[in-house]
Specification:
Elements: H1 5-35, H2 40-87, H3 91-114
Length: 115
């Protein structure tokens, strides 16, 4: 299954928005840290930003893992599509499969050893 162009655009837009927000939060956090003496409102903002950034530490590994799983699944799908084409006599697919087979076997072995 491939993502539609609309899905890709939405993902890129959402990712860009997330990066923009994180950049701004990190800048605010850094500015507050460098300021030194903080009033109560600034101190509360610093704590809130800090809690949010620390919470990302728990979320990001899961998100990265899901992206890796998705990418691996799509790679396997492409491999088998090329393999089928190679079996059906496509010379370009045969060359690609010859190059990909050792990498695919290594990757599969690594994933089996992880579990």
């Amino acid at each position: 299954m491939t993502d539609s162009e609309e899905d890709k655009q939405k993902f890129n837009k959402d990712l860009g928005y997330l990066v923009e927000i994180l950049s701004e939060l990190i800048k605010q956090y850094n500015d507050l840290l460098l300021k030194g003496e903080l009033n109560s409102e600034e101190d509360e903002a610093l704590k809130t930003i800090q809690e949010f950034l620390l919470s990302l530490g728990a979320i990001l590994p899961n998100a990265i893992s899901e992206l890796n799983e998705d990418l691996y699944g799509k790679s396997v799908g492409l491999y088998y599509a090329f393999k089928e084409a190679a079996i059906n006599g496509d010379p370009n697919a045969q060359i690609i499969i010859k190059e990909l087979k050792p990498m695919f076997e290594d990757s599969l072995g690594e994933r089996l050893n992880m579990n």
